[in-house]
From TrEMBL:
Domain spans labelled LysM: 343-386, 422-465, 488-532
Organism: Pseudodesulfovibrio karagichevae
Residues in coiled coil: none
Protein name: LysM peptidoglycan-binding domain-containing protein
Domain of life: Bacteria
Amino acid sequence: MGLLIASLAAGCAPKTPQEAAPPVEEQVTENLVPDDAEALEPEIEAAPEVAPGEDLTQTEQAVLNQRFGLLFDLEQHESDEVELFFTYYNHKARKTMERWLERSQPYLPYVRRVFTKYGLPQDLVLLPFVESGYNVKAYSWAGAGGMWQFMRGTGKLYGLQSDWWIDERRDPYKATDAAARHLRDLYDKFGDWYLALAAYNAGEGKIARALKQANCDDFFELTEKNRKLSRRNRLKQETRHYVPKFIAISKIFQNLDTLGFEPVSWDLEYEITPVKVPGGTDLLALARAGGMSWKDFHELNPAFRRQVSPPHMEATAYLPADKADKMIAYLDEPGSRPYAGYTRYHVRSGDSWWVISRRYGVPINVLKSVNNTRSNTLRPGQYVMVPGHGSSAAAIAAAAPGESSSSSSSAAKTRAIAAKRGNYVVRSGDTLWSIAQSFNTTVSTLRKSNGLRSSRLKVGQKLYIPNSTEAATKQAVKEAGKVKAQLVQYKVRRGDNLYSISRKFGVKVSDLCHWNAISTSTTIYEGQKLKVYVQ
């Protein structure tokens, strides 16, 4: 990751001639690559040499000499480089090839359908093996991302959004459609699939200039004349090896059984339901509505870089087909967008998680959770997402689930009292934030007065809206808190501090210290039990 970010910070040449330098406001050296990005495996960029004792078996030699394979229709071209890569992926990099084959199984059927729709040769479904090993999280040193390794500029040309919130180059479905259109455009330009593949790797401008200087229209003839080209037009080794590597992998894929590989299963495709989610959707809550962990949800939706969908755009989420109904029902609830008002904070010199936590009144563990990081380090110039507009309470609930049953029971009684005094009926589109703003009160007051544990609201639900004056607010909270306080024995977790625990239970730090006969400077430790009185 350090290498990825460092090389991105240094800048890189565009992959296609259409790519211009990004606008000044987009030239951010931080957060171009997600925290969970994976560097390309060395076997992707390898320039192998045949090692002693790596002669092909008779079976392997027969496969290498075959010209056609079932369901594949690109003419095979023999060359020393094809044999080199064929030997490499059958022997030294065999374990890697097996891993790639297994990783490709959920996506191969979809890729084949899309390429069939666009009338492309079927063997082009193997191109992600050459690009990324079918890894949706892969990023190159130059900043190309996703299964199809789009550069940001090229991806944007084909409708893939890539910013601090989302990177649709990692969306295996949208990126596959974009790759099919891109390959079709390259073939329309060059009229030859091997040249189109070379242009996919090096950029169409580079290949066009090289062909013009070499006065030829064939990839293999171009590679033979490569040394005679000017330095500007000369093809790099990566591009010269690109087509032979593709052909070698095609031969292996066409003959998996013969070569001793496990056959690929074509019935392991993810059963998903694509849905549009509005800007600012709480993705973590969406996942939980379907009984999913964030890890499992993100496995299906690697394009999302935060646990909140981009506030500025409608995005696509892929839901498990068997859980989609519950999750779609959650999206219909007004409370599904408590994070629409998140703040994108620009880290300055001297900032730390603690400083930002104090400045915005958001616990450190919540800040780290919504930014998908465990790192304690912040660097000047990077950006972090800070809950705002009353969403921090919902974020705390999401980051620290599992409150005591006594607390839940007390909250239920508080809600019952508030419902009897309810003077406002929730309407479609309402959120706690919008209601608080309309009545000049706070989200915290509304939650305490109504015994709410989350920011979810239902149309027709009754809420008690206290007066906006300080005295009236205190009285409302007092009346809602007539239920006898319950004692909770809270077990301190890693990362907890007195401030975060007080926020978690909605109590004052001073009260927390009083109940436990400690001071604000007392160090608490993991596993320690603290008394907390909650309503």
